Amino acid sequence: EQCTELEANSDAAYFAANDRLKLRYLQEMLEHGEAGKLYEGVIAKVSSSGLQVDVAELGIYGFVPREKLGGDLRLDGHRLTSRHGGGYKVGDFIYLALESVDSARGGVMFVPAGR
User: Fold this and answer.
1) What is the DSSP code string of 14-81?
2) Integer Rg of the chain from CA
3) What pTM was estimated for this model as a whole?
4) Do residues 108 and 46 touch, judged by C-beta distance below 8 A?
């Protein structure tokens, strides 16, 4: 049991350090003006405040605020829908550009490509 607990603690420390390195890498991209690269994301969660996206290329989850999505969107179950048709739902692919990194909270903000 003690070995299992130590191994779990070691794994948690490894993943936390790995996440910090990813955030530092993304912050450096922003600081050097290299944030224009587009990433493919998959919508993992839809909420009234925006989209949680899984960016597999970076191995992270990020967030797209609702106000960055454009249009008049409303939450309809597990979708953000527009009055003019279209919208966003879990499982949809979306192309994203890096907007900001919050190292203190461990968060990454994206905007949809072309916005």
Assistant:
1) HHHHHHHHHHHHHHHHHHTT-TT-EEEEEEEEEETTEEEEEETTTTEEEEEEGGGS-S-EEEETTEEE
2) 17
3) 0.76
4) no
